[in-house]
Specification:
This protein is mostly helical. It is built from 14 helices and 2 strands; from the N terminus they run ααααααβααααβαααα.
Length: 330
């Protein structure tokens, strides 16, 4: 393993550990920050696999919220109605959306980007209708209440903070390792030119289906955590809007970097907390999306943004040395 590969894997991990520790310290001073931290971690857990699927594989999916809802309802039904332990239900909550995604992936992933986005958001709406109509299992529109908190973690927010950020850390490390592997490079080749990738022996259908399935499984994990953290699950809890927001976070933060989805999730959560009203939030988010797509199509954490920042930082010392230009008091 070369030094650059080791750095590309370790750097995001160290930054995420720094973020988690900083939020934990801030949470000790102001406990409400723990709630914000858990929300950022939850969104990051949903956005990271979508970043891998979209940024590296070129496949837009708006089904993350739907697969998270499948995982959340699975654990809600198994623990509340059948008395399973949360850890036993974890396997099914992750496995069910992963298997479902793999089963439908091949025909869906042949579609162009826009068609795939429309089909996956339709899939989420179908999930929602099923949850609403299957009253015997899901409680219909009223949902399921009384979902037990996770053992050990309980209702302690600081424990929930470390749990969700540990999951984010593991997923981010796996993301970075995958990108640097031979399969990651094959995935990049698929994004650039599928026919060329197939001609070099890459099984395009299997690679994309596996990634789509993995993405759904991680969404199921996030849904499992959500159900036990909130204690309640209804069809509107993780509705289609969540899927659109997750895609927005990936595009905003950076779809081609490990840290991009986490940066996007952080900005989205903080802006949602600080900006007044949904109308104002919609205007700001829409403006941000236009700016990012026009000037930095790969997001905030992207090579284009890095080059722009580097030019700005090198331009200031050059300006200081130029005759007639003074940036400091004499």
């Amino acid at each position: 393993m070369t030094r650059s590969v080791r750095l590309s894997r370790i750097s995001p991990v160290l930054i995420i550990i720094g973020i988690a520790i900083s939020l934990a310290i801030a949470g000790q001073v102001k406990p409400s920050i723990y709630a914000t931290s858990v929300t950022i971690g939850f969104f990051s857990l949903l956005a990271l696999p979508l970043g891998l699927l979209y940024g590296q594989g070129g496949a837009i999916s708006l089904a993350q919220g739907g697969f998270a809802a499948v995982g959340a309802f699975t654990t809600a039904i198994l623990t509340v109605k059948f008395g399973w332990s949360p850890f036993a239900s974890l396997v099914v909550s992750v496995g069910l959306p992963a298997i479902l995604a793999f089963a439908i992936a091949r025909p869906l992933l042949r579609l162009p980007e826009l068609s795939l986005a429309l089909v996956t958001i339709s899939l989420v709406m179908i999930f929602k209708v099923v949850f609403e109509r299957a009253e015997q299992l899901t409680g219909g529109y009223n949902g399921i209440t009384g979902i037990a908190p996770l053992p050990i973690i309980g209702v302690e927010r600081s424990y929930a903070h470390w749990t969700i950020w540990t999951a984010v850390l593991v997923v981010a490390y796996c993301y970075a390792s995958y990108v640097e592997s031979g399969r990651g490079r094959a995935l990049n080749a698929i994004r650039v030119d599928r026919l060329l990738a197939e001609s070099t022996g890459t099984n395009v259908a299997f690679e994309l289906s596996s990634l789509f399935s993995l993405s759904a499984g991680i969404a199921g994990l996030a849904g499992w955590f959500y159900a036990h953290y909130i204690g309640f699950m209804a069809p509107d809890s993780l509705d289609p809007t969540l899927s659109a927001n997750i895609l927005f976070m990936v595009v905003l933060g950076g779809r081609k970097s490990v840290l991009g989805p986490i940066v996007g999730a952080s900005l989205f959560t903080l802006a949602s907390d600080l900006l007044p009203g949904t109308v104002t939030q919609g205007m700001i988010f829409g403006f941000l999306l236009i700016v990012i797509l026009v000037f930095f199509p790969d997001g905030i954490v992207s090579p284009g943004m890095m080059r722009w920042t580097r030019r700005r930082t090198t331009a200031i010392p050059e300006a200081k040395n130029r005759p007639g230009v003074r940036l400091e008091r004499a």
